[in-house]
Specification:
Layout: H1 3-15, E1 25-34, E2 37-46, E3 49-53, E4 61-65, H2 67-75, H3 80-86, E5 90-93, H4 95-101, H5 114-122
Parallel strand pairs: 1-4
Antiparallel strand pairs: 1-2, 2-3, 4-5
Length: about 120
C-alpha cells in the first residue's frame, strides 16, 4: 500500500473535523482493488467530525478504485468525479455522499479557480 494513501487517511483521522462536511452524517468505505486483494478504509462522518479505520463494514456509500488512482486523487493530480465519469472509479450506495467526500481530496495545486481559493480560506 502506498505511503501517500496511508498519509491521506491518517491526516483525515488526525484532522478530526472538516467544515466542508459539517452537514453530513454518514459512513463511506473506500475499497482499493489490486488484483484479487482489496484494502478497505472506513470513514465515519458525524456532522463534520471524521474517524478513519481499516474495517470492512457496511457503509452508506462504497467507492471502489485502484490504489494507483487513489494515490493520484490524494495528491491532487486527478479529479474524483472525472474518474467516475470515465469508469475508473465505482460508487455504490448513496451517490450524494461521493460528491461530498470528493471535497476531501486536494484540488490541482496549479489551479487558481474558486475551489482553491475556498480551500485556502477554510484551512
Amino acid at each position: 500500500m502506498s505511503e501517500a494513501t496511508t498519509a491521506f487517511f491518517k491526516d483525515l483521522d488526525r484532522r478530526g473535523y472538516e467544515p466542508l462536511l459539517m452537514r453530513a452524517t454518514a459512513t463511506v468505505r473506500f475499497d482499493l482493488h489490486e488484483g484479487a486483494h482489496t484494502t478497505h478504509w472506513f470513514l465515519r462522518i458525524d456532522r463534520g467530525r471524521l474517524r478513519v479505520s481499516r474495517e470492512d463494514l457496511e457503509a452508506d456509500a462504497v467507492i471502489g478504485l485502484s490504489p494507483a488512482l487513489f494515490e493520484e486523487l490524494a495528491a491532487g493530480r486527478e479529479h474524483a468525479i472525472a474518474a467516475s465519469l470515465r469508469g475508473d472509479l465505482r460508487v455504490s450506495g448513496d451517490p450524494r455522499l461521493f460528491v461530498q467526500v470528493e471535497r476531501l481530496f486536494p484540488g490541482d495545486p496549479r489551479a487558481r479557480g474558486p475551489r482553491r481559493a475556498f480551500e485556502r480560506e477554510v484551512r
